[in-house]
């Protein structure tokens, strides 16, 4: 049991440390990041309840609805909502990159709890693929979400960027699900999609850090 939980959570902790340490200027308090991780993990339970209710009421009538509504929309909206509720207005959310740290922490908390439940059902032999695809994808959806939340907080056009912070993770998650549900040889399609996600995520990280560098340079010169 302990080995199973460790196998489910350890990759998420490693990814969270990676994104946390990518902050080149002012890293966030560990207790705030941990709180977001826990909130993300707890989101699994209302998510499962809503998804079960949709199935019971036969609201989901197609694979497309399952991919976009039952999974992508519900999961990304709840993650977005909990970030907005708990940290968006917090004093520690004071730089562009902070959005990436907090949104990724929520996403990886969610993915970890989901991973524990999955490995309990299907065994340790699925741990590697779970870490490679679902866990990593949740983290990268979180990076995209957090990037736009950072822009929404510190730039004009807040409504636009808040919309982007939900819409783009939802769109990417939906595409991920569509590949998984509609392709028999899904790994041949999902592998290049994951490479694209990583490149996109790393680009957002670089841009967030560059914006922070410009801010600190301007602050030092004033």
Automatic annotation (TrEMBL):
Keyword GTP-binding among record annotations: no
EC numbers on record: 3.4.-.-
Molecular function via GO: peptidase activity
Membrane topology per record: Multi-pass membrane protein
Cross-referenced Pfam families: PrsW-protease
GO CC annotations, alphabetized: plasma membrane
Record bears the keyword Protease: yes
Family under the similarity heading: Belongs to the protease PrsW family.
Record NCBIfam families: intramemb_PrsW
Protein's name according to its UniProt entry: Protease PrsW
Lineage of producing organism: Bacteria, Bacillati, Bacillota, Bacilli, Bacillales
